[in-house]
Every structure is written in structure tokens, then in C-alpha cells.
Design brief:
The complex is a heterodimer. By secondary structure, chain A is an all-alpha fold. Chain A has helices at residues 3-12, 16-32, 37-47, 50-61, 66-77, 79-91, 96-104, 108-120, 126-154, 167-176, 183-198, 207-229. The chains are: A mainly alpha, B mainly alpha.
Amino acid sequence: MGSAYWQGFRAGAPFVLVVAPFGLLFGVVATEAGLDIVQTMAMTVLVIAGASQFAALQQLNDSAPVFVAVLTGLAVNMRMAMYSASLTTHLGKAGLWKRVLVAYFTVDQTYAVSINEYEQQPERSLSDKLAFFFGTVSPICPLWYVFTYVGAVAGTAIPAEYALDFAVPITFIALVAPSLRSLPHLVAAFVSVAVALSLAWMPYNSGLMFAAILAMISGAAVEKRMGAAA
Amino acid sequence: MSDTSIWWMIITLGIGTFLIRFSFLGLLGGRDLPDWLVRHLRYVPVAVLPALVAPLVVWPDATGGTLDPARAIAALTALAIGAWFRSPLSAIFGGMAMLYFMQFVIQ
């Protein structure tokens, strides 16, 4: 438990403010969707990726088949392939089991805090970088489990007037909105919404996949054109 | 939905998500990704999440699938706060606050 670990711990600590309410909300939504406490906790521990957990549940609630729910959740998590790729430049030489643990605990917050530190201090040793990463994990991930549990237990006690059905869309909007300040991101979001709404008649929310693929291609194409013009 | 389908969903999503996270850390070692792939991966969140949210905002279940002014205005509020302040947390609180306010005003 050296100083790198505690630096990571301190850098990760403020994100408890994001993770705690999000975990609470997942516990509530999961029990309302019909999962029991064991299933809710199994999902939160095995998947440990809030947005995809909400997305998959939403699909099951819309009576989509399991494979569509899983594909939707995986599509939401594809951004983590990008996290994995960028962490590899710093942690790729760690031992296999350490890389397994890093992979399991790669969430938006631990990744963002750690990569920021690595880019500022690229010369730090591999063991310092690993200690820093697990430092960021310590306040964030255990609280995700704990607050999911609290939400699952308290869930049915929350009255309908609180309109918690809408907390999930609000949360997704909140996660995406900060990135909408560049043209390619705006174009991608616009294509995503337009295609999703016009293909809403397709069965099992399968229009979502078309919307996501077209939006991704549009964003990348606009970025490339802007790069060529600059 | 049955217990079996819930467990299948949990286990396959759990394994799949781990494999996505482990992908490059596990297999690539120190090598770099091709530019075109990185360029597309960058737009994954902004391509998936709006498509997921748009129908929930325009046709919410809670109002029987018809556009609800309170929910629509709350969604736009969250969007504006999040884009302006670049803070997901303020966007969540602002959006929900607007939803409660609009429900109070409209009813």
C-alpha cells in the first residue's frame, strides 16, 4: 500500500458521488423489472457496468429476447474495448492475473482517472501505475455493489410519483451530453436518434443496432473529413 | 420473463463484457490499434446511447406511449446542463428536478 495506491484512492474518491446514486437506481430498477436480490447482485458483480445493465434490463422489459438484450448491453460496453486498448500501452506488460483484474475493474471512472495520471506521468514504474489503478478502484467499485444492494432492498418502498422510470433515460442523456461539443459527436448523436426513431417499428428494438452502426460510421466520416480539411 | 432467461442474460452479458475489457490488455501486449478502428470506437457511446434513449423520451411507457411534455422538457434540460457544464451528475439532478417541477406545474 504505497503512496501511488493512496494517490489513486484520493483521485477516485470524488466519483463516489456519481457511483452511489447510480448503483442505488440500478438496484431499484432491477427489482422493479422482476429480478430478485440474488439476481440483482449477481448482475451488478458479474457485469459491473451500469449503463449496459440498465440497457439490457430495458430490453427485457420491452419483451425482447435474451440475445437481443445481451447484444444491446454489449454494444453499450464496446467503448471499453477502447479503454482496454489505451490501458494496454501502460499496463500491457503486467502479469496475466493482474491484467485480468485490471480488465474486470475497468469502468468509466477508474479508466478516466488512471489514464489521466499515466499521460501526465508516463515515466512512472509499472508497479506504481498498477497501484494507482487499484487505488482508484477501491472507493468506486465496492460502493457500486453496496448501493445496488441498498437500492434493491429499498426499491419497492419508493412511490411512483418519484417517476424513477425516467431516471434511466435521464442518466443516459447525462452520460452522453458532455461529449456533444464537437461536430462529429453531434452528427453521430443526431443520426443515432433519427434512425432509432424511424426504425422503431422493427421487432425487438433491432432498429437500435442499425442506428448505432450508421451513427458510428457518420461520426468517424465527419472526423476524417475535418482532419483532411484542417 | 422467466428466471432462466434472466440468468442467461446475466451470465452471457457478464462474460461478454469481461472479454471486451480484456480484449486488448489480454491479447495485444504493447502494439497499437489501426487508426480507422480507433476512429470508429471513439463514437460508440454517442452512437448507442441516444438511439436507446430517443424512443423512451418520445414514447414513454409511463404515459401509455404518448409524448409527455414534463418528460420531454426534463430530457432537454438534462441534455442542456450536461452539454454546457460537462458534468453528468449535475445533468441527472437538473433533469430530475425539472421533471418533478413540471409534474407539479402541469397537474
